[in-house]
Myotubularin-related protein 12 isoform X2
Amino acid sequence: MFYSSTNKRNIYTEGHSHQMLISYSSLYAVFDEKKKPLFGQLKKYPEKLVIHCKDLRVLHFCLRYTKEEEVKRIVSGIIHHTQAPKLLKRLFLFSYAAAVHNTVTDPRNHTVMFDTPKDWSWELERTKGSVKYKTVRVNEGYRICDRLPAYFVVPTPLLEEDVQRFQGHGIPIWCWSCHNGSALLKMSALPKEQDDGTLQIQKSFLDGIYKTIHRPPYEIVKTEDLSSNFLSLQEIQNAYCKFKQLFLIDNSTEFWDTDVKWFSLLESSSWLDIIRRCLKKAIEITECLEAQNVNVLLLEENASDLCCLLSSLVQVMMDPHCRTRTGFQSLIQKEWVMGCHSFLDRCNHLRQSDKEEVPVFLLFLDCVWQLVHQHPPAFEFTETFLTVLSDSLYIPIFSTFFFNSPHQKDTNMGRENLDTQSKPLTLLTVWDWSVQFEPKAQTLLRNPLYVEKPKLEKGQRKGSRFKHQRQLSLPLTQSKSSPKRGFFREETDHLIKNLLGKRISKLINSSDEFQDNSREFYDNWHSKPTDYHGLLLPHIEGPEIKVWAQRYLRWIPEAQILGGGRVATMSKLLEMMEEVQSLQEKIDAKHHRQEAVHTQAPCLLRNSARLSSLFPFALLQRHSSKPVLPTSGWKALGGEDDLAKREDEFVDLGDV
């Protein structure tokens, strides 16, 4: 328990309603069977309310038989709490933190938080990057920049005075080191200036920085300008807005009406194409690090959106540690939380600006899901883990995804003013999964088919594909070419001009030589057996990029297959694993003349004929109760037998 029983019921009730309000996406009113968006004050009150949530649930509330004054109070309250801008300190997160103060256990759960120099030194030692890079404390207390963590890593030759010069802008910050000594770096652009004198000072500064990190033939740096030569945040936002409408379905009639236009609607959203472009760019960066053995410097205005996405994706592909659950959680802490990704703005928790709401982190999880789906044995976690992680963006009791930077978090927790008498608040992190799920439910987050140690003999790389009533990928067609394709340049001039906001249109076209190198690297890797503890590349051809069914289809009963899908295959595989384990135990017991003690592997996938193809989330009926995994952020599970008997369930541990 997190707090005294006297407060428990009130805080739970308030938390459930706050979660619904914070995950609110759109509000509609139904008048005479016609649905209209609901804004501001109403002259006529509706007979039904429809709420679209950010996790793609569609909630219906019938008001037809409610008294008029009650309808007025309910509708006015919902409009106020879902559409009015909020203050940060008014979020339920802080009320919950006050209620559980001094009674919360350590939430780290072996995840490296990267909030101490020791954590960064450990990561440098793990990746063997400590020879060329160092941890700096120059931003301790956030005295240099509030858009940087208190501690971070830079190239060893870099002086602390250089870090302070432009408040941390224009500084190459270390992300990760490859086994061959190459490294992945990121850099935020300098403020745009119109004054020629200031521009010259910035040019000289960047020229000095570049010479520090680019010293041929010993150190070669290739740059990738993400602000001008890759996806824009507007493209991501527009694509996802179209894509999510495919799954916000009110009733069966609407489902079947859109079914005949499924392929055209899916393609026109461009969401799968954006995922493909992200994976392709990550492969290109991986080729530079792995095959060319050169450093890669990612450039972005604030280095906190696409830099986070690509640096994380590259590490998942190249570093098997990041494919373990603890390693993946530590990666998110390092690149996203300490990388100052603006979760508060990008998730629009305060509902202050729809323009700032861009699902960059969800795009990253979708890209990782493609890898998990294509190479299940390489990951210690399942797609269910990724799904509940995406849901955790909107659970109002965790601080992990509720701030724009560590500085903002520490300021609002009271950690900066240590002289005050009041103690700082203690906020939960999402990595303590026991807060959300009972131990039996947590087994759904672990992949029982994970290959823990590399083996010489490899099986078939391609696993069984999940076949659904709706095809989850587009037919094989030529992918859309980006009007602003990415490219690498080594010239100092190009780096300086991009960082100063000067774009050169004649340099935007891709290099044919680089495309050939990337294609050869990609084809060579896929022609060999997969080493699940080595480099891991995705297939990016048209049909290989699929819809993340478990996340997007789970609330649509018509999309489920009772007793079918990959969940049925997984159930049989786990039964075989248990049988092999039992036989092995009998052999060992006979060899040692001991009685066999059969230990049954934990499995919630028995009786697969009763399960939906999208276990453990989906509902099989539009009016059924609640899914196996609670969506509220609090533990709400019965026994194992009860899990198998429920009629509301969802998909495949299919990543496993």
User: Anything to note?
Assistant: The chain has a mean pLDDT of 81. The CA atoms of residues 2 and 105 lie 9 Å apart. The chain has 23 helices and ten strands.
